[in-house]
Task: inverse folding
């Protein structure tokens, strides 16, 4: 996951390619939501 204000990108390296799964607008506090889910 990469957080570049105001976007959050979920991606994965497969071989020599980057597969982007989702790009979200960071208007919501996704960092906080993800931290709460992990606990």
Result:
């Amino acid at each position: 996951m990469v957080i570049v204000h105001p976007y959050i990108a979920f991606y994965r390296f497969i071989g020599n390619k980057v597969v982007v799964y989702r790009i979200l607008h960071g208007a919501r506090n996704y960092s906080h939501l993800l931290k709460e889910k992990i606990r």
